[in-house]
């Protein structure tokens, strides 16, 4: 909104002399006003006409009637109506400026606009309309009669829950002070309360802003001794509580953590004060739980789970707590893991509502398993039992989990957690539960519970049916089903045959079923003894005739076929091995075979006399339809056994790539099943340099399985097998191949991030070179290449440590080491440390050096003991200490040298403040040699101490495997400190959170009090105040930080015109990087101050620069006190 002075010369345009002529003129030229310049040019005409009529007459002039007619005429077209609103706004502003007593504006126009507001689609047009309504009510409705009528219209179209419609939100916001004057009880009114609460909890940012405005007005009236029923009697503590409440709400509109967390630490005090009613607190809880900042979410979930139990929260808040906890982010063992103690407290009291809401969440795998695990760990005393419907819903959520391994564990947790409830279920309900919980590929193991249920007459329901889905679930674990055969047969005998349904087929999946032929003869009139000598086609026919009770049902016929095939394969006659091809044709030509049947068939390919190639092809193709990972791996293994048996026929080359391409999860099985010499061929450059690893949710799930279930990633074990193969079959040519891979990796990306693809690749290469050089030794050319890598590249610590170890322990050329020592003054600090560390290893290996060699080494290292670089200085001191400790006996043979070494050791002890032993707990300085019983001892130490990712290389590197466990644990701590790394289960959040706890600093933006309306393009012409906004011209300033600071100040003070000499400046970092005031004022200081002054701010910028803020306050003080005294 603003003022406007037309650029057109309006004196040449017609000047209507009367109100009637003015509105006739406006109607005649109305179509021209779609062009903004034409619309703006007519505003002075309106102003001058009204001014002329005011001067020429003393009678009351009616402008309301014509204005209402104009609005009515154009109400159906929003483009036209917007023009009419601009004209109305100009008329209102002009009348207010000239004389409200002379011009008549009736309230009918305002009621018309109020009625029309809900039909307007464009939000800004609603704002313009409300602005016109507000202008009229403030200046013409002195008795508040129209205000009351408008409010009644608004209330009548509110919802049944007393919440105003969206179009009326702005009317309420703009009229609140007028309503307070006309209806003194407005803040107690149900429409005001319901709408304010709705707005505060809205997902729309502007609506929340309106809600906070309404709440502020309420608090304002509260502090002025106005009675409000939902606020206790005014006193200082009540006022403070509501100010804290509003401050937290405002803070939650921010995105940056440091602007939010400090205010949240007052939430507990606010909750315990008792001055804020629960329904208002729930709004605050809801806003907190809905926040998008992950650090705020973490704070919120920790707060709610540690302060409340699940029984304490309302339905909506409890649901939000469960929803926010459904994020893998909170269960990351490599970063942050929500503490189990929070779950224990939160679940100490559980209601049926919890189970109902728990079943409503579409859970991810890791959060759901964690909740079920914690539920299982809780005592069931004094907690409500879940309803049957809740259990079914929760079971269906488990079934929908995508991660197979975690889902398997979650199923196990369901059976443990709700064991009592499952025990009490009737057979029919339990079958429904099983079908809700299990996929056909999941492993079912609760056979005893299922088969024993119908034996209790109280739990048996005759209408119970056994579906095909149940059959598939029960056949998922044939091995365990076999142990329940006796219970199964009793179960079948206890049920009328006509009710067996698809359960008729289950017994024939069990190998020992033939031992109970009399039962099957009795139940199904099926003589198994005669089938044992029949071929497969006869068995299929017999099963179809005896077991299919509805010949028109295709699914029954399919299941009869599967049962017959499974039974036949379980009792495959030896003489049929020579006819294996005929059997294979029947089996493999059927689609969707049960996984257990296909697995059974795969075992026969290694016992058959002859297996045609097409059988293997078909079996591999069929494998693609199998979904259970255990079954896939079993069949895959059988295929690999066959391939290895027939490798002389070139089958490995034929099927190798196809198997790996189609079944990447079986990569490990494939590699572990082929011969070691072949494994090296398959582990080619692509696999070595792929650096394959997962990120995001898949990684968190993999980490979770590793720490919770001990599941080692296949890729990590695969790389271990590769190292084993290297140790057994690698040669020098393979070392050169690895070095070429390293060079290729460096060429592509010389510098790389920790745990990046390049880091992973280089680490594997370094491990491979170490294993091979440990075995082969003696190739100086390879050592020269590694010297170059160490001194010319910037590699990650674990990679560099491995290469330093190789050179230090296998370099036999003392002259080469001495040459590098002599070059140290010309090297960088990191290169100097590398040479010094290699020297350390060189001196500490088993072979002893001569005194002359030691003197040369010490002579070259001594200058760096007092060097300028701290790390170089420290490492040289520690290395000299190691040398003197090992060669003490040799130094004793030379008195002069002995005295010098003693003095040097004392100096080093003094320089390190007596902490030499602590500094020596550095993996770079430890004399690590290959263990007598473990070829991978050194790599185990390196992977453990340097925290190599769990999925990179599995070497059994848990701390318990090391003899010097405490030493390596300390080395790990020192490594993490030195390289600024973090342990698992910690994150940057921890530091931010602790910082907030200690400082509790507050920074908030003070918005101008009346800054609530959305800006519009409404303008007005006024001769009394021709307008102009300030223009800040900074075209002569060339320092970007100064320009950025001025732009920031313009934004905060609402100055919209800023001139610079080049638009390119605004994209430069020095112009942008000005937001460093993030800590705010410590809350503890605020209570010690007599006064707190805030600068109202416009725009989006958070704050002024500190020195600009100080300058404003100093100027204001000088203006008020020093300059005023000087003038007086």
From TrEMBL:
<keyword id="KW-0808">Transferase</keyword>
<dbReference type="Pfam" id="PF00588">
    <property type="entry name" value="SpoU_methylase"/>
</dbReference>
<dbReference type="GO" id="GO:0030488">
    <property type="term" value="P:tRNA methylation"/>
</dbReference>
<dbReference type="GO" id="GO:0003723">
    <property type="term" value="F:RNA binding"/>
</dbReference>
<keyword id="KW-0489">Methyltransferase</keyword>
<dbReference type="InterPro" id="IPR029026">
    <property type="entry name" value="tRNA_m1G_MTases_N"/>
</dbReference>
<dbReference type="GO" id="GO:0016423">
    <property type="term" value="F:tRNA (guanine) methyltransferase activity"/>
</dbReference>
<dbReference type="InterPro" id="IPR001537">
    <property type="entry name" value="SpoU_MeTrfase"/>
</dbReference>
<feature type="domain" description="tRNA/rRNA methyltransferase SpoU type">
    <location>
        <begin position="1076"/>
        <end position="1115"/>
    </location>
</feature>
<dbReference type="InterPro" id="IPR029028">
    <property type="entry name" value="Alpha/beta_knot_MTases"/>
</dbReference>
<dbReference type="InterPro" id="IPR045330">
    <property type="entry name" value="TRM3/TARBP1"/>
</dbReference>
<protein>
    <recommendedName>
        <fullName>tRNA/rRNA methyltransferase SpoU type domain-containing protein</fullName>
    </recommendedName>
</protein>
């Amino acid at each position: 909104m603003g003022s406007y002075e037309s650029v057109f010369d309006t004196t040449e345009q017609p000047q209507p002399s009367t109100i009637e002529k003015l509105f006739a003129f406006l109607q005649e030229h109305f179509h021209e006003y779609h062009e903004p310049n034409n619309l703006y040019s007519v505003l002075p005409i309106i102003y001058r006409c009204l001014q002329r009529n005011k001067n020429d007459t003393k009678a009351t002039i009616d402008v309301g009637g014509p204005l209402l007619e104009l609005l009515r005429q154009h109400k159906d077209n929003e483009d036209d109506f917007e023009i009419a609103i601009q004209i109305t706004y100009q008329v209102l502003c002009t009348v207010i400026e000239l004389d409200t007593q002379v011009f008549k504006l009736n309230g009918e126009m305002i009621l018309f606009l109020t009625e029309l507001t809900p039909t307007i689609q464009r939000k800004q047009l609603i704002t313009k309309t409300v602005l016109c309504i507000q202008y009229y009510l403030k200046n013409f409705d002195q008795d508040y009669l129209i205000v009351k009528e408008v409010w009644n219209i608004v209330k009548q179209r509110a919802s049944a829950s007393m919440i105003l419609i969206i179009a009326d939100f702005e009317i309420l916001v703009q009229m609140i002070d007028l309503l307070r004057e006309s209806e003194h009880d407005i803040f107690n009114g149900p429409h005001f309360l319901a709408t304010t609460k709705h707005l505060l909890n809205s997902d729309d940012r502007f609506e929340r802003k309106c809600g906070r405005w309404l709440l502020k007005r309420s608090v304002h009236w509260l502090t002025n001794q106005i009675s409000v029923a939902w606020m206790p009697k005014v006193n200082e503590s009540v006022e403070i509580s509501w100010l804290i409440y509003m401050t937290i709400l405002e803070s939650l509109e921010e995105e940056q953590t440091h602007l939010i967390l400090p205010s949240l630490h007052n939430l507990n005090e606010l909750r315990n004060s008792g001055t804020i009613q629960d329904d208002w607190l729930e709004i605050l809880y809801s806003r907190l739980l809905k926040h998008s900042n992950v650090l705020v979410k973490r704070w919120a979930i920790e707060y709610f789970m540690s302060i409340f139990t699940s029984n304490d929260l309302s339905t909506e808040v409890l649901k939000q707590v469960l929803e926010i906890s459904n994020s893998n982010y909170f269960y990351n063992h490599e970063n942050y893991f929500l503490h189990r103690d929070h779950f224990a407290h939160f679940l100490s009291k559980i209601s049926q509502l919890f189970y109902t809401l728990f079943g409503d969440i579409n859970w991810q795998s890791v959060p759901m398993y964690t909740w079920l695990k914690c539920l299982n760990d809780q005592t069931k005393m004094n907690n409500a039992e879940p309803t049957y419907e809740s259990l079914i819903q929760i079971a269906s959520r488990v079934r929908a989990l995508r991660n197979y391994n975690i889902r398997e564990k979650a199923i196990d947790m369901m059976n443990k957690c709700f064991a009592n409830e499952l025990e009490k279920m009737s057979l029919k309900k339990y079958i429904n539960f099983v079908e809700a919980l299990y996929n056909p590929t999941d492993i079912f193991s609760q056979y005893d519970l299922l088969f024993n249920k119908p034996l209790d007459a109280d739990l048996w329901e005759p209408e119970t049916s056994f579906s095909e889905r149940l059959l598939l679930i029960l056949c998922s674990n044939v091995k365990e089903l076999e142990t329940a055969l006796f219970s199964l047969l009793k179960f079948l005998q206890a049920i009328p045959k006509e009710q067996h349904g698809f359960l008729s087929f289950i017994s024939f999946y069990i190998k020992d079923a033939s031992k109970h032929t009399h039962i099957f003869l009795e139940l199904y009139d099926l003589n198994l003894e005669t089938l044992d000598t029949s071929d497969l086609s006869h068995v299929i026919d017999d099963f179809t005739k005896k077991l299919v009770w509805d010949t028109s049902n295709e699914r029954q016929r399919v299941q009869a076929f599967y049962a017959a095939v499974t039974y036949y394969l379980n009792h495959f006659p030896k003489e049929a091995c020579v006819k294996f091809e005929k059997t294979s044709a029947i089996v493999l030509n059927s689609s969707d075979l049960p996984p257990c049947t296909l697995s059974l068939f795969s075992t026969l390919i290694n016992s058959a006399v002859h297996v045609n190639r097409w059988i293997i092809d078909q079996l591999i193709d069929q494998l693609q339809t199998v979904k259970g990972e255990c079954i896939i791996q079993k069949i895959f293994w059988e295929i690999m056994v066959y391939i290895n048996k027939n490798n002389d026929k070139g089958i490995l080359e034929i099927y190798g790539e196809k198997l790996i391409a189609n079944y990447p999860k079986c990569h490990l099985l494939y590699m572990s099943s082929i011969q070691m010499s072949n494994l090296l061929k398959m582990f080619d450059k692509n696999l070595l340099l792929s650096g394959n690893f997962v990120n995001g949710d898949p990684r968190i799930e993999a980490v979770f399985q590793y720490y919770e279930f001990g599941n080692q990633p296949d890729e990590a074990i695969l790389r271990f097998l590769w190292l084993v193969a290297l140790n057994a079959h690698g040669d020098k040519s393979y070392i050169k191949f690895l070095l070429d891979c390293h060079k290729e990796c460096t060429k592509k990306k010389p510098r790389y991030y920790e745990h990046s693809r390049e880091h992973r690749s280089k680490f594997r290469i370094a491990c491979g070179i170490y294993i091979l050089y440990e075995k082969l030794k003696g190739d100086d050319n390879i050592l020269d290449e590694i010297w170059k890598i160490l001194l010319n590249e910037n590699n990650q610590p674990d990679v560099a440590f491995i290469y330093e170890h190789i050179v230090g322990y296998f370099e036999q050329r003392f002259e080469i080491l001495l040459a590098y020592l002599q070059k140290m003054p010309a090297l960088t600090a990191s290169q100097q440390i590398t040479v010094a560390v290699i020297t350390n290893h060189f001196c500490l290996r088993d072979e002893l050096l001569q005194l002359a060699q030691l003197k040369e080494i010490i002579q070259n290292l001594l200058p760096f003991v007092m060097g300028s670089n701290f790390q170089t200085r420290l490492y040289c001191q520690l290395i000299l200490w190691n040398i003197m400790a090992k060669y003490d006996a040799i130094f004793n043979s030379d008195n002069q040298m002995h005295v010098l070494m003693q003095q040097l050791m004392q100096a080093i002890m003094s320089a390190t403040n007596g902490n030499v032993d602590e500094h020596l707990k550095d993996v770079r300085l430890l004399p690590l040699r290959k263990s007598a019983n473990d070829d991978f001892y050194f790599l185990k130490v390196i992977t453990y101490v340097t925290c190599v990712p769990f999925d990179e290389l599995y070497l059994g590197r848990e701390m318990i495997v090391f003899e010097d466990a405490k030493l390596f644990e300390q080395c790990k701590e020192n490594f993490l400190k030195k390289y600024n790394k973090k342990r698992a289960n910690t994150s940057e959040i921890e530091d931010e959170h602790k910082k907030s706890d200690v400082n509790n600093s507050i920074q908030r933006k003070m918005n101008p009090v009346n800054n609530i309306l959305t800006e519009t393009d409404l303008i007005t012409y006024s001769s009394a105040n021709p307008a102009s906004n300030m223009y800040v011209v900074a075209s002569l300033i060339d320092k970007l930080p100064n320009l950025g600071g001025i732009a920031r100040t313009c934004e905060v003070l609402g100055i919209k015109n800023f001139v610079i000499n080049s638009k390119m400046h605004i994209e430069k970092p020095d112009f942008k990087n000005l937001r460093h005031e993030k800590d705010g004022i410590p809350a503890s200081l605020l209570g010690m101050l007599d006064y707190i002054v805030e600068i109202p701010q416009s725009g989006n910028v958070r704050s002024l620069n500190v020195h600009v803020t100080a300058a404003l306050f100093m100027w204001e003080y000088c203006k008020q006190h020093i300059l005023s005294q000087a003038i007086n």
